[in-house]
Amino acid sequence: AQKITQTQPGMFVQEKEAVTLDCTYDTSDQSYGLFWYKQPSSGEMIFLIYQGSYDEQNATEGRYSLNFQKARKSANLVISASQLGDSAMYFCAMRANSGNTPLVFGKGTRLSVIA
Amino acid sequence: DAGVTQSPTHLIKTRGQQVTLRCSPKSGHDTVSWYQQALGQGPQFIFQYYEEEERQRGNFPDRFSGHQFPNYSSELNVNALLLGDSALYLCASARGWGPAKNIQYFGAGTRLSVL
Question: How many residue pairs bridge chain A and chain B with CB atoms within 8 Å of each other?
Fold first, then answer.
């Protein structure tokens, strides 16, 4: 079984500052993928970034980077230069590489960017 | 390039009724998954379709059923609606049947209210 834990129900960040959203996971699988999705108030779940468990480098996508620490089973999302449009719910998720298993999500973190 | 589209966007039903939600996958995608997202929670996996067959199923009762058509679009049916079925229903599509790096892209969801 897989489990995702997001311990920050809500976070505030000043515009143009960087923010880190925490995510820890638990799995018995050796090969898996980790994901972050953004969900604005409109409801759509927007894919942000992916990290494979065997990837040697941390993933980056524009202002998003994933701080992957395999031994600690953590996959924190770092957003640099926050913008007002970054205000949303952020979900960490994972799935095993075998058998097209479904995504398992955490409970999410609500990020509010302050001008 | 159209993304994942879902219809309707909102729906109000009464207890005991039946509902059908629809999903068209992203162009080039052939795997469709359905998730239920209760208020304040992360999405929970309902089931997944590939090659017109249900391949994986989460912990949901038989009242939840689905279908995938030859054009890869999908329907989610819920019978004998309960108040607890009120939620955002999200559809996600991916290319092929395979590892975690086959990213799942989501639609904007259908918000179902059961009165």
Answer: 74
